[in-house]
Amino acid sequence: MSRIGVFDSGFGGLSVLYEAMQRLPGQDFIYYADRVHVPYGEKSQEQLLEYVQQVVDFLINQNVDAIVIACNTATSVAVASLREQYTLPIIGMEPAVKKALDLYGDKKVLVTATPITVRGDKMKLLVDRVDKHHLVDLVALPGLVHFAEREQFDKETVVPYLQETLQDRDLTAYSSLVLGCTHFNYFKDSFRDILPEQMALVDGNAGTISQLIRKLGTQIESTGEGRTVYYDSGKLCEGEKREKIDRYLERVKRMREIS
Ligand code: DGL
Q1: What confidence score (pLDDT) does residue 224 get?
Q2: Are residues 86 and 114 in the same domain?
Q3: Taking 90 as the threshold, does the pLDDT of residue 129 lie above it?
Q4: 170 with 156, same domain?
Q5: pLDDT of residue 218
Q6: Which of 30, 70, 132, 237 is least crowded, fewest Cβ atoms below 10 Å from its Cβ?
Q7: How many independent structural domains does the chain possess?
Q8: Is 237 part of the annotated catalytic residue set?
Q9: Which helix (H) or strand (E) holds 138?
Q10: Domain limits for position 65
Q11: Using a 6 Å cutoff on CB, does residue 2 contact ligand 1?
């Protein structure tokens, strides 16, 4: 049986954790939300390296067998240096650009992410590698991270923000929209309201957990109770904080039904 650490700057990574719990029900999970430092997407690379290091050290002290960085931004900045330092499997996330091009590459693809991910070298390398026909456009949607952290999911708030940010784009030219930040999974209902029907929503959650399963190998054949504990910036979530997490997980479950 394995003990798997999953972390994000905040609540976005719960969408990745949910996928993992569905597919690996007999494993233990520790979820860490680094909420004192959210939003990662608007910090400097140096700050992020420091924050991520602290979270990874915390998880390693909890004896995890593997770590999932349920955050595209943290992966973009820190995954290479973490893999140099540690021997345990570290599974990162990157916006599912390749998946979108493979599935819907007959038309343009709109990739959404945080400002750091959009500007990062890792994104440039990814696009250079997979976007042979120059079909990819990038857009940062930092406002969605703020809405998600405030549990503000109502369409009255979210839809105008999306409309304004995307107003200069001809959305009928796109085949799909990539949710390149784990927080964006909470807003599939609002995206669906403003996107033309032909635009598919694509995320990288399933691919990330498939990679985790490959890395853990035979370790997951033995199963246990399947317990999950949650930490908010180093403090165990209990009582009201735990109830709040359950509300987020409930929303993750509902948003998963929307494609
Ligand atoms: N959830 C994170 C991601 O996937 C970043 C959100 C933030 O800006 O903190 O990129």
Answers
A1: 85
A2: no
A3: yes
A4: yes
A5: 86
A6: 132
A7: 2
A8: no
A9: strand 136-140
A10: 3-93+205-255
A11: no
